[in-house]
Amino acid sequence: MSAGVASWTAGPGSALQGELKVPGDKSVSHRAIMLGALAEGTTRVTGFLEGEDTRATARVFEALGVGIETPSPSERIVHGVGLHGLRAPVAALDCGNAGTGMRLLAGVLAGQGFDSVLVGDASLSRRPMRRIIEPLTAMGASIDAEAGGLPPLRIHGKKSLQGIDYSTPVASAQVKSAVLLAGLHARGDTVVREPHPTRDYTERMLAAFGWPIEFSPGFARLAGGHVLRATRVEVPADFSSAAFFLVAASIVPGSEVRLRAVGMNPRRTGLLAALRLMGADIVEEAPREDGGEPVADLVVRHAPLHGIDVPAALVPDMIDEFPALFVAAAAAKGRTRVSGAGELRVKESDRIATMAAGLRALGVAIQETPDGAVIDGGPIGGGSVDSHGDHRIAMSFAVAAQRAGDRVEIGDVANVATSFPGFVQLARGLGMGVEGA
Ligand code: S3P
């Protein structure tokens, strides 16, 4: 659990105005540490997310014998030890709140010559790990979990891994990445096939580190026995963090905000498509590449939104943005239906249940379904909501509060530091009403 205040008071707000760059991408930052650690040579990472999740991953690799320097905030120099250079840790490895950290690390550690234990905070300790234990076990790994396939994970080393041709039952970049990372240490080919394409940062970054890999949406293949070569990694600004301001500026009359250099990987920008379907006014300016990733400046202006049926094909491309989308739907005219998003129930909190409880407390008509929700837009009132320690829930209610008729008290917000340190200051700089940090 991160340090920080336990609650915020937010809204009602006035128009958002201004320009900013949100912090670095969480997914890319985790992977930069991991591949940098396993590479030959020294990797410089710029734009690194100084969040609790990504710092936990860096600490884990330090505990595995990797030297990591912080020459300035949001920079890391990772002294790679090579594929076989990690050292046995002396204690359990703490992944904090990070599902990405734990699941990808399990893939890295499954093929090592030593035992290791991965632990996490209360939220991570409730998140399903069978989805990675099953394929890694099929590759020859030996991993024990608690009842129900929950953390801690006890990984028994000295197992020789064999490549696998694996069709993931859930669309999960974390599962895909765990299998591919284990595949680095495996004999033969490792193939992952997905029911819907998910974010491809592991594949892109493996290629950037010189590992031969073939990939296309929903498919990846690599073979063991190569070498990762250190490189520079420029981390783009996190689309998932930008998402809160895209929604806030869309729903508060008079707003106009420019978000600089936002990562625009198409596997991440489903929310942009969904908001545009709802009538949002968001313009992409100066599209370009930074460090091998597409980025653009996004200019968002207030626009009246209307409800939509969120297209199923967009769901994996906006899986982290549903809390923000629920707020956009609450502020829209008419009905929004979300389905095919059952994965939301196993994120940092059950995001369908926590958003439904919070929106209802603010007077919004929302009905839960097993894999989504039906939201009827209308006035948002003041009240008290509980974030259940989930960073994205806390920030989404800070956004909802800007359209609320009265103040919103938002509890259990300290974990915002896992993905978006400095959120309150940046939000206030745009004119959002949020206090408590
Ligand atoms: C992530 C993948 C997604 C996402 C998470 C980060 C990643 O999880 O929700 O925040 O970096 O691979 P799933 O792949 O489990 O959907």
From TrEMBL:
Phosphoenolpyruvate binds at residues 26, 99, 127, 174, 351, 392. Keywords: Amino-acid biosynthesis, Aromatic amino acid biosynthesis, Cytoplasm, Transferase. PROSITE patterns: EPSP_SYNTHASE_1 (PS00104), EPSP_SYNTHASE_2 (PS00885). CDD domains: EPSP_synthase (cd01556). GO terms for cellular component: cytoplasm. One of its GO terms (biological process) is aromatic amino acid family biosynthetic process. It is an enzyme of class 2 (transferase). One of its GO terms (molecular function) is 3-phosphoshikimate 1-carboxyvinyltransferase activity. InterPro entries: Enolpyruvate_Tfrase_dom, Enolpyruvate_Tfrase_sf, EPSP_synthase, EPSP_synthase_CS, RNA3'P_cycl/enolpyr_Trfase_a/b. It comes from the Bacteria. SUPFAM superfamilies: EPT/RTPC-like (SSF55205). Belongs to the EPSP synthase family. This is 3-phosphoshikimate 1-carboxyvinyltransferase. It comes from Marilutibacter aestuarii. The gene is aroA.
